Please model this.
Amino acid sequence: MRVVVTGAAGFIGSQLSEGLLHLGHDVVGVDLARCAAGSHPNFAYHQVDLRHDPLRRIFAGADAVVHLAAAVGQLPSWTSFEAYTGCNLVATQRVLKTCREERIGRLLAISGSSVYARTPSATRPCRPARSAA
Model:
């Protein structure tokens, strides 16, 4: 299986990429920072900005996309609104559009800690609404 991992240089993205490679998959890592898995023969790295760089060539032939790339933290969403919305909304919209254009049937979008409210218990689960589709 050929899997595109956006945010591949981050902690979760790098661990996921290494795990997929260990299982024998081909991984295409996408990030602005350099990826640690870059020396593996089944790993292709692309240093791109998801907000505006071309994506179709990178996503072509993928069986699945795991979208991890994002600007993190709640404070920057208010102090750097344009950068935050660009990284989180525009980039995600472009990933979705490219998946549709390339007819990639599997997309997993991962959300980080910013979706959790501050509560006394760190084990409170996040319960996203189910899609009507």
Q: What stands out?
A: The CA atoms of residues 75 and 117 lie 13 Å apart. The first strand starts at residue 2 and ends at 6.
